Amino acid sequence: MATKYYVVWAGRETGIFTSWPQTKALVDGFAGARYKSFKTEAEAKAAFAKGGVSARPSPSANKPKSQATANASAAPDSDVDIYTDGGCEPNPGKAGSGLALYRQGELAELWYGLYNPKGTNNTAELNALLQALLMAKTELARGNSVHIHSDSQYALNCITNWAYGWKAKGWKRKTAGDIANLEIIQQAHTLYDELKTELKISHVAAHVGIEGNELADRMSIYAIDKQDCDFNRYPAPFSLDEILALRAG
Predict the structure, then answer these.
(1) What confidence score (pLDDT) does residue 21 get?
(2) Which residues form a coiled coil (predicted)?
(3) I need a labelling partner for 178 at 20 to 30 A (CA). Which of 2, 52, 172, 215 fits?
């Protein structure tokens, strides 16, 4: 059966999903829910980029036009919103991870690093998600609500879905062959399983002008350019125009 892509513009979470039961849970009983299915990921991404207005206005609404987020439906909606991304040039090749953290809808921190000269895009995405989960644990312990946004369906599925089956089978796949990126997946899944009742985590469309996703993307490529194996905080104050003008993945 061909994969369908479900766009949720207004629901308990917004984004693009590939599971109807998950999508149904996000929109059932939600006042003003807006959603639709698409046959291809490209169609879903284009529709999501054009689509609805979130229940909360974009935090960039009062910024200069050049700094405004193109898609208000992905506006930060928690005390802390964390956007993650991974890049690789080529794939496999030089890889790096990036992260953008918002507090109360305002950009507060940018992070980059975890350079791997022989990495993959999937590994870079998982590394970024693991760092976000580590930060989420700290923020939740402080009493803050946290929402992690990743543009990698692979990384999200590994941590929130597939890992349960692999773990039940002694960290083995149904078919022959090892699980790629197993060590990172195990660390991230352990954290996710510990935090999942308090944590929001969802897919965000990539490269459609969502500020947090675009900034995380720039940080992942900045990590490749800097070839820094640590995970470093990008120095503030930030000039969004300058950061967004950095190389994109």
Answers:
(1) 77
(2) none
(3) 2
User: Which letter, b or e, does each residue of 144-182 get, where b requires 16 or more Cβ atoms within 10 Å of its Cβ?
Assistant: eebbbbbbbbbbbebbbebbeebeeeeeeeeeeeebebe
Query: What pairing do the DSSP bridges indicate for beta strands 231-233 and 15-17?
Result: unpaired
DSSP H or E run through 230: none
H runs (alpha helix) in the chain: 20-27, 41-50, 121-141, 153-157, 163-168, 182-195, 211-226, 240-244
Name the least confident of 30-34, 85-89, 140-144, 184-188: 30-34
- How confident is the model over 126-139, as a mean pLDDT? 98
Rg (CA), the chain: 17
* Distance between CA atoms of residues 79 and 138, nearest Å: 13
pTM (2 d.p.): 0.72
- In this structure, the chain runs to a length of 249
The Cβ of residue 61 has, within 10 Å, a number of other Cβ atoms equal to 11
Q: Hey, how many other C-beta atoms are within 10 angstroms of the C-beta on 80? A: 23
Contact 8, 17 (CB under 8 A): yes
